[in-house]
Amino acid sequence: MGKFDKYKIDLKGMKNDSSTYEFVLDSTFFNSIDAPEVQKGKVCVALTVKRTAGIYELSFQTSGTVQVPCDRCLDDMDLDITTTDKVKVKLGKDYAEEGDIVVIPEEEGVINVAWFMYEFIALSVPMKHVHAPGKCNKAMVGKLNKHLRVASNEEDEWSTDLEETLTEIDEEVSQEMDPRWNDLKKILDNN
């Protein structure tokens, strides 16, 4: 038995016009799928399969929590996931994708939904994922503050001592700087 066999849905052998399935995806599932976006979590998926006129509509209701690295401090953070997705499937000669319909070979009549579930979860993760203000790893934020260069009119809500840090860095840099750069800096300060 393969590691994703329990996610196979026998469409050809469906007795009723509608069937429901429930899956709990945990860290074992995410590690087995071996994709970089999500590697830990616990997500419940309710799948409803409806057959109408040779087309199978698979409706996925997904909710749970996944762990992703914080873009700021790189520590793992919990991210709530809730999504509703649909896939249309029909039986055909060979596996193919025709627009928004997935075609699976009629002689098999089985579709494995593991990758679909993973994709729906991964696509629901926002591009930017950061801890709430004040929740990031303080040591990492301190190192970021030490090396971060921000324009004087910008503010960042996650660091209260950023201005002090930048002032200290500016003083250190100006002491080590070639004196000719000071004249150029005066031009910038006048604007």
Q: What does this protein structure show overall?
A:
The structure is a single chain. The chain folds into 2 domains: 5-124, no CATH class; 138-190, no CATH class. The protein is built from 5 helices and 8 strands, in the order ββαββββββαααα. The chain starts with 7 loop residues before the first strand and ends with a helix. A 6-stranded mixed sheet has the order 2-3-4-5-7-6. The chain has helices at 27-33, 114-124, 138-147, 162-176, 179-190, and strands spanning 8-10, 18-25, 40-52, 55-69, 76-92, 96-98, 101-105, 110-112. The chain has 191 residues and is of the alpha+beta class.
List the helices and strands and how they pair.
Elements: E1 8-10, E2 18-25, H1 27-33, E3 40-52, E4 55-69, E5 76-92, E6 96-98, E7 101-105, E8 110-112, H2 114-124, H3 138-147, H4 162-176, H5 179-190
Parallel strand pairs: 5-7
Antiparallel strand pairs: 1-8, 2-3, 3-4, 4-5, 6-7
* Domains (count): 2
| Total number of helices | 5
State the distance separating the first and last CA atoms.
70 Å
The main sheet orders its strands as: 2-3-4-5-7-6
- Structural class based on helices, strands and sheet pairing: alpha+beta
Write down the overall geometry: elongated
Fraction of helical residues: 25-40%
> What is the H-and-E element order?
EEHEEEEEEHHHH
The main β sheet shows up as: 6 strands, mixed
Strand content: 35-45%
Oligomer: single chain
In total, how many beta strands? 8
Which residues sit in consecutive blocks of at least 5 with pLDDT less than 50? 154-160
Mean pLDDT across all residues, rounded? 81
Rg calc:
26 Å
